[in-house]
Fold this protein.
Amino acid sequence: MINMSAGQTMMTPSCLRALSGQMETPIYYPAYWDIEEETLALSQRLLGTGSDVLFLAGSATFGEEAALRSTMEPGDKIVVVNAGVFGQVAVDLVSIVGCTPIEIKVPHGSRVDLAEVERALRADGVRGFFAVHVETSTGTAYPLAELGALARSRGILFLVDAVSSVGGTAFRMDEWGVDVAITSPQKCLSGPQGIAVVAVSDRAWKAVAAKKTANNSLCLDLTVWKRYHDTKVRAMNQAWRDDAHEPHVAGRAKHEPSPSGPLVRGFHGALADLFNEGIDHFRRRHEVSAKAVREAVRALGLRLVAQEEEIASAVVTVFYLPAGIYEKDFRVRLLKDWGVAIGNGEIGPNNVRVGTMGVGAQPRFVLPTIQALESTLRSLGHQFDPGAGLRAAESVFAANRDINWSRVS
Ligand SMILES: *Cc1c(COP(=O)(O)O)cnc(C)c1O
């Protein structure tokens, strides 16, 4: 089978090896601490940041909720760009933690109006700004550099859902003025599902420290995860190296939540493969693979949700099916007849999503997927020039000779 979904992607070879290794020690030994430290350093490079990066146990959404709970005060106003399902999740989370969302509604697949964002951020009492980098439900990318500049000019904390974008899209946390970035290994990084990666700027830590209201959560508290890393990993590792006593940690409960040792090891493997290939090469093959899918979709006479080529994402392509075809029926056919799994239609019953994430972003997976799409569309009565999709995709790959596909793990 081929997994071309937009999450829980196929995993890299080193990730798979790491996941199948024995748990020779629990996570309270240097063997694990060294891996966690290395994974952290690689994550900082990936995200373009010198700030703290935390590995919470849980899916990416845990990281989003923890970020809001830890940095915001109940009653705070937070401007949220809502351009699809994940924008809506952010709006809902803002309310769940007791804050007030100010929504900027963006039609599916459209650009965000920067003037509207600027006006919204200027309203009285706005403390936070939340944006989704790539809205995975529509396959549309949003301009973080511009959005970050607007947040910075108002001194407002900038929180970013970068779950699906990181790896397949350039991400420069410090340069763009992002305060909290949330991502996870199971999208473009082709690592295991179950870790929320949360990067936290110094400005965000100041907001955490200044908070007057208790967080009321142990597991979704960024300070707990930072304390875990600083004391139970970094200081303990040093104590082992120095042959010293275990350092005393003030304020820590007897037991606090733990990261998942096996998953951090798997994530480490995935990042090792990414940096071995080279981060620019890795990103380029996402751009080219997604472009190949888009050109194929157009050649088949179908319409993309992303309304302009410039804002179409490099990690997932979302398109409308011919009238009358229900997305689930289409995916069932694709899976049963060809062993190809794609993403469901999240914005309605008439669209599907083809991920070009991590391992999947290569011709050896993209081309069979397009063949399966063509065959399934034909069997459902859609009219098009047979082979047009494959030819369009092939010519995109042929035109981008800077990529050396043999470098991919
Ligand atoms: C997948 C995804 C999420 C949710 O991730 P989980 O790990 O399932 O919690 C959030 N935001 C975006 C943009 C995503 O693509």
Q: What stands out?
A: The mean pLDDT is 97. The CA atoms of residues 64 and 182 lie 6 Å apart. Residues 222-242 form the longest helix (21 residues).
